[in-house]
Amino acid sequence: MQLRYSFRLYPDSSQQRALAKAFGCARVVFNDAVRAREDARKTGQPFPKIGELSARLITQAKRTAARCWLGEVSAVVLQQSLRDAETAYRNFFASLKGTRKGARLGAPHFRSRKDKRQSIRFTANARWSVTEAGRLSLPKIGAVKVKWSRTLPATPTSVTVIKDAAGRYFASFVVDTDPAADRARMPATDRTTGIDLGLTHFAVLSDGTKIDSPRFLRRAEKKLKKAQRELSRKQKGSKNRDKARLNVARAHTKVADARREFHHQLSTRLISENQGIAVEDLSVAGLARTRLAKSVHDAGWSSFIGMLTYKAKRYGRTLVTIGRFEPTSQTCSTCGTVDGPKPLDVREWTCAACGAVHDRDHNAAINVKQAAGLAVSACGAPVRPGAIPAQREETGSHGFPTGNCAA
């Protein structure tokens, strides 16, 4: 399994200039590739192959006065930029044909030097290395100081140097992990759980555990408003505006980093404690169009479920996703009666059939676990709330409950 490990870089002033030059050259090659493709499309010519583009946009361009400065950076950086353009077009055409999953992708567009995120990639051919002093040696850039927060589990196959909107530098290593070693780190357990994600509480587990929602964005709103207000008052194109923009980016970065750390800690804890986990397939895009949009984005459910997905695959756990139309909040987890939809302000309700009193979120978490087939009765049979027998005065076929141990 391939994973990315990111570490903070601290380049000095000369290395920052060299990185800026590399970012710019990679951007120019990418834009030249997009322009060559667009010119071929407009004239009705076949798209040029990547080998032809490499010879024309890199090898021959270095010999011209207009592009001679391309020789000042590593050739691997330029080749990888061409490959990025090729991948972008391949994904675009796959999206048009419907063979690529996910949202519809647009055609590749030109990159700007004002883009808030810049990146370059070095493969093994670039002969980058980690020195004995723990620095990252990059060709034509130098040995950059790295803050090693953990040990790499294996030798990386490539490294990507990234500059984010807040002006921070990172090194992102691609590592092939050992599945046997990963699973040995997480001993098997017989525990399972269902998770109900929400806004009042970020997550409620089927055992009754409630995890409060940190609401990082809500707590930082006052500081964010102040930074944004100061940015709006600065003159465009001035150095003070650049400083104010950095302050806004850093404030947003703190919120995003805190949310990501919370998701990582919680997902790792759930994966380590449970062999099977059940979650609900939420329509985050739909919920983000309601009046709860800010709270939904602040919670970051999609990011959390994505972490659960890859960590479950890595450590040999089972993650089951149930359909979003499963009436988990309307069904009694004791007898299986569907009691109908309820407003969001109803946090507790009593089942009309069996009289059980339910906490809305806890009951939904139990139903998520049962719908995924992870709940087990005392006799070892899986528990799934089945159909309730219709009353004699009701029309329709009579159903029978399932999961009966005596049967």
Beta-strand share of residues: 15-25%
Rg over alpha carbons:
27 Å
SSE pattern, N- to C-terminal: EHHHEEEEEEHEEEHHEHHHEEEH
* Main sheet summary: 7 strands, antiparallel
Helix fraction, binned, reads 25-40%
Shape: elongated
Mean of all residue-level pLDDT scores: 88
Structure annotation, total helices: 10
Uncertain spans, ≥5 residues at pLDDT below 50?
Answer: 376-407
Please identify the structural class as seen in this structure. alpha+beta
Distance between the termini: 44 Å
Q: Order of strands side by side in the largest beta sheet?
A: 2-6-7-1-5-4-3
Number of strands: 14
Task: Chart the SSEs and their pairings.
Layout: E1 2-10, H1 13-42, H2 50-59, H3 75-97, E2 118-123, E3 129-130, E4 136-138, E5 142-147, E6 158-163, E7 169-176, H4 179-185, E8 192-197, E9 201-205, E10 210-212, H5 216-232, H6 239-273, E11 276-280, H7 284-287, H8 293-299, H9 301-315, E12 318-322, E13 348-350, E14 357-359, H10 360-371
Helix pairs in contact: 1-3, 2-3, 5-6, 6-9
